[in-house]
Design brief:
about 170 residues; mainly alpha; two-stranded antiparallel ribbon; 7 helices; about 5% strand; globular
């Protein structure tokens, strides 16, 4: 059994690192959709935010998306850091603290709020970075699609596929 008085357990660090690597990998390419691309890293961000505490969720969401952009397309990397980091923290906090005896409902509310944060954050970020609000409006449908897809898939993976239950079970063995 590991002592967690002064930090995170090896399992928590390992899970965070794997999820962060998945975020970096999935932010490196987009799935072509009519008129643009959809990135799948929101699935990992939502999943991580539901199972991890807010600090580790920020590492996966914010820092993972930042690194993905830094390696492959650096222009929006700071927008990704703030937007996905805030998204992950809010989802994690909602899941843990909103309605204590209903974590499924709490995480649903969290991913909805997180999706709004992602869409608004990227729209404002694009308008600022590219200095054209029109560009942000053109990309808005893709941001909404990506946010909804990430929220739905993250919820399904955590609650229907049992990833959250498995993570809790593994953490209780420590």
């Amino acid at each position: 059994m590991e002592n967690k008085k002064h930090g995170f357990s090896t399992l928590e660090i390992t899970v965070t690192a794997v999820l962060m690597a998945m975020n970096v990998a999935l932010s490196s390419f987009g799935v072509p959709v009519p008129g643009g691309h959809m990135y799948l890293n929101d699935v990992v961000i939502c999943l991580a935010a539901i199972i991890l505490n807010p600090a580790l969720a920020f590492v996966v969401g914010g820092i993972g998306a930042f690194l993905g952009d830094l390696f492959f397309y650096p222009t929006p990397m700071f927008v990704s850091l703030v937007t996905h980091g805030l998204q992950a923290v809010v989802i994690s906090l909602c899941t843990r603290r909103l309605i204590k005896d209903k974590p499924l409902l709490s995480s649903l509310i969290g991913v909805i709020i997180g999706a709004v944060i992602m869409v608004v954050g990227y729209s404002l970020g694009r308008a600022f970075i590219y200095s054209t609000p029109e560009y942000a409006i053109v990309k808005l449908p893709f941001q909404i699609l990506q946010a909804v897809f990430g929220a739905v898939m993250g919820m399904l993976l955590c609650w229907k596929c049992g990833i959250r239950k498995l993570y809790i079970k593994l953490m209780s063995r420590q």
